[in-house]
Design a protein that fits this description.
It is a single chain. This protein is of the alpha+beta class. The protein is built from three helices and four strands; from the N terminus they run αβαβαββ. The protein has two domains: 1-55, no CATH class; 65-91, no CATH class. Strand 1 (17-19), helix 2 (38-47) and strand 2 form a beta-alpha-beta unit. Helix 1 (4-10) runs parallel beside helix 2. The chain is globular, with a radius of gyration of 14 Å.
């Protein structure tokens, strides 16, 4: 899970995508109850950075590798704002 300070730190690096193993990426429950998903707002809306949620990261973490090619095959759904897909790491 990421909080807004982490999103603010990541954004200047201009990553294409930020992923997490939870289904929000944002801290849940929120730190500030007045702001809904601040990480989503900061990364997607302000910087155009995609978020990938629910990633199974244990296997890649167990390898000790920190560099790999990340590939995501999405479903071409016309008019959608998101898509299920098949993410995988190429080591």
């Amino acid at each position: 899970m990421l909080g807004l300070p982490a999103a603010e730190w990541l954004a200047p690096f201009q990553p294409s995508v930020v992923g997490a193993d939870n289904f929000a990426v944002d801290v849940v429950p929120p730190v500030d109850l007045e702001v809904f998903h601040p990480v989503h707002q900061h990364l997607i809306m302000k910087h155009g950075i995609y978020l990938h949620e629910g990633l199974a990261l244990d296997d890649i973490a167990a390898t000790g590798r920190s560099e790999f090619a990340y590939v995501f095959g999405s479903l071409p759904i016309v008019g959608a704002t998101g898509s299920p897909g098949a993410p995988f790491a190429i080591i």
